[in-house]
Amino acid sequence: MHHSLKKSSTLTLVFAAFVTTLPLVASAQSCGRVTVANMNWQSAEVLANIDDIILTEGYGCEVELVPGDTMPTLTAMIEKGKPDVAPEAWINAVRLPLDAAVKEGRLHYAARSLQDGGAEGWWIPKYVADANPGIKTIDDALKHPEIFPSAEAKGKGAVHNCPSGWNCQLTTGNAFKAWDAKAKGFLLVDTGSAAGLDGSIAKANERKQGWLGYYWAPTAILGKYPMVKLDAGVPFDKNAFETCNTKADCDHPTKTDWAKSEVFTVVTDKFKKTGSPALAYLNKRTWGNDTVNQLLSWMNENQATGADGARHFLKTQPELWTTWVSPEVAQKVKASL
Fold this sequence. Notes:
By secondary structure, this protein is an alpha/beta fold. The protein contains 17 helices and 10 strands. The strands form 4 sheets. A 3-stranded antiparallel beta sheet has the order 3-10-4, sandwiched between helices.
């Protein structure tokens, strides 16, 4: 807080009293234009579209969804103050600069988007785990390149990496180095995109083949194809993870578990100052992994877009989302559906 804001006078008290008597509709209009990051994975995309509908219809904001991704979006928010809202920010990998920006008052944490947090790590199909009860940890899996064969090189195993631009591409690449997977007969496979990563899981499951690689929950594909998260076999090393394993220039990565991911909505200081009372919604808007998995599965089965998924959720689960907003706002949103 700036020290100048602590100064008070009769004039400011009178002005404050006047402002608090203004109708809420004026605040809604003052919400103005809001840029919301539409991240390029399914759970974040549907959440951005839910925010779009609720902020537009319920609070009178003029919302623009802008393409987003974890690192570029949060970096832009820290350095440029845009976009205004990142609905589903997986903050573990960018905790240090993000906390610094929050401390400086440039950004603010709103609700925990995923109240259960996210689970990250290396996974194998359940049928592989059932057939190989000795494979419990990453080390166990890396003893068996023949169970996780590479399509690219005969006799080699494959570890499937994250799409380009995602921070997990760095953490998976560094884990691959830390576990010395190359020396154990494995290749790191570039899956190219989220669709490529999902496609590799689907293909392996449908053919009952081995698959090893990075994934996370909540996700529709883990609902459709039962997968088992491997134990890292080591605890989470916060210092090593934050200072090296999340960096592109990490020369000596460390064997470390992934932390249980904290997933928050992050807003800019400008939005906090102008977005009221819409900020109250973003401070309350949180959901559980089961809810998300069910919605994502519905979207996959119906080839639904993020906008389709948002409308389906708002139509079918009012008992959840109406707890995030006032009755007046809920009525406006319901009328728009």
